[in-house]
Design goal:
With 150 residues, the chain is mainly alpha-helical. The protein has helices at residues 23-63, 67-85, 94-102, 116-119, 128-147.
């Protein structure tokens, strides 16, 4: 018989390093990066679209030289926005039109400054402060209607 073999205890291999990560982690990081880039692109596109709509509204009102003309321009732009989001509401008139413009937010059109839309575009003179308040209200509603989906 030969001499006994010098055997040692079982040794576990060293723990794997944290770098470089396994391929699955690289795929997860790539998927997250793509999702973040897509989200940033969509938000930027939405912001640019909103800016274009607001510029359209502001340009149309700036082209109107009197408060009456600004009210008529705001009314026309609201009708155009409604055509995009709720085509059936384009034919509403009077109180029904104002209630539609109120939406779910309140009664700013049917009971507030928005009532000027009914006849403000046909009056001889309109107070500039009233027209300014109406145009600010119409601008907010215009943007909401343009962003609404069918």
């Amino acid at each position: 018989m030969s001499a006994p073999l010098p055997l040692r205890d079982v040794h576990l291999p060293a723990a794997p390093d944290w770098w470089p990560p396994a391929p699955g982690w690289w795929l997860l990081a790539a998927a997250i990066a793509v999702a973040l880039l897509l989200l940033a692109w969509l938000r930027g596109r939405r912001r640019r679209r909103r800016q274009r709509w607001l510029a359209l509204f502001d340009t149309a009102l700036a082209a109107a030289d009197t408060p009456v003309a600004r009210i008529a321009a705001a009314s026309e732009l609201l009708r155009r926005a409604v055509r995009r989001s709720a085509p059936r509401a384009v034919h509403l008139q009077g109180e029904q039109w104002l209630r539609f413009l109120d939406g779910r937010q309140g009664h700013a059109f049917s009971e507030g400054d928005g009532r000027l839309l009914l006849d403000g575009g046909y009056r001889r003179d309109v107070e500039a402060g009233q027209a300014t308040r109406l145009c600010a209200l119409a601008r907010i509603r215009f943007l909401a209607l343009m962003e609404a989906r069918r």
